TrEMBL record:
InterPro entries: TPR-like_helical_dom_sf (IPR011990), TPR_rpt (IPR019734), Ycf3/AcsC/BcsC/TPR_MFPF (IPR051685). This is Tetratricopeptide TPR_2. Signal peptide: none annotated. The keyword Repeat applies. SUPFAM superfamilies: TPR-like. It comes from the Archaea. It holds the Pfam family TPR_16. The keyword Aminoacyl-tRNA synthetase does not apply. TPR repeats lie at residues 85-118. Keywords: Repeat, TPR repeat. PROSITE patterns: PROKAR_LIPOPROTEIN, TPR.
Length: 230
């Protein structure tokens, strides 16, 4: 039996040479005629599949998207870039500024998981915990910040924080030692933060008389501890 393929090729060639539009299935185009298996619509026809859509529709689709779909068979979902240490530290201080102390603590906790020896992250964690009146945990955070600090420029603020929480825990002798150390480190660093220094002296004055605690002051979260250095 003679194959029908050459005949079909001949027909298509003649139709193409005559300028006649041809369906992807091989049928010649005619107004009002929709070949079997296709779906007619008010704006054209298709097989109901993206890959069988007419050229005028394909021309309106993003070629990058088409390339991805044709190559892989699916539309990729954008991959979220994981946050790094600096991202979490910045997020933590931003949350402190906004008064969202729990979110700040969670951000600093993630930063510490990435860099356990970061004095900045521990100091920020101390601020967040102190602001939530979690004084024992804040004391531990400030102590860690001091142990990992690289000099007076960063650890004076951590000593000040340690002094504040010890004062809040009524451990006045230990608080006095921490606050006096904070002043010594402050002077050694050669920095200038008069408001913070005034608060340290105010607490020392309160401790010297063992008077009742003064109204609580929210610790400053404007900048990380290391930023206090010259």
């Amino acid at each position: 039996m003679r194959s029908a393929v050459p005949i079909m090729v001949l027909v298509l060639s003649v139709l193409a040479l005559s300028g006649c539009m041809v369906f992807s299935s091989g049928y010649p185009y005619a107004d009002g005629v929709v070949p079997s298996g296709m779906i007619a619509g008010t704006d054209g026809w298709s097989h109901g599949s993206l890959f069988s859509a007419p050229n005028w529709l394909l021309a309106q689709i993003d070629p990058n998207l088409m390339s991805t779909v044709l190559d892989y068979g699916y539309t990729p979902v954008p991959t979220e870039v994981p946050k790094g240490f600096e991202d979490y530290v910045a997020e933590g201080y931003a949350a402190l500024e906004g008064g969202n102390y729990r979110a700040a603590y969670n951000a600093f906790k993630k930063a510490i998981e990435l860099q356990p020896s970061s004095s900045d992250a521990w100091y920020g964690s101390g601020l967040a915990l102190e602001s939530q009146k979690r004084y024992l945990s804040a004391l531990e955070a400030y102590t860690q910040a001091i142990s990992y600090s690289k000099g007076a420029g960063s650890n004076w603020a951590s000593y000040a924080g340690k002094g504040r929480v010890l004062y809040s825990l009524n451990r006045f002798s230990d608080a006095k030692t921490a606050l006096e150390t904070a002043i010594a480190q402050y002077e050694k660093a050669g920095v200038s933060h008069p408001d913070e220094l005034e608060e340290i002296y105010r607490l020392l004055e309160e401790i010297s008389g063992y008077t009742s605690p003064v109204p609580e002051a929210i610790p400053s979260a404007d900048i990380p501890a290391t930023a206090y250095s010259v």
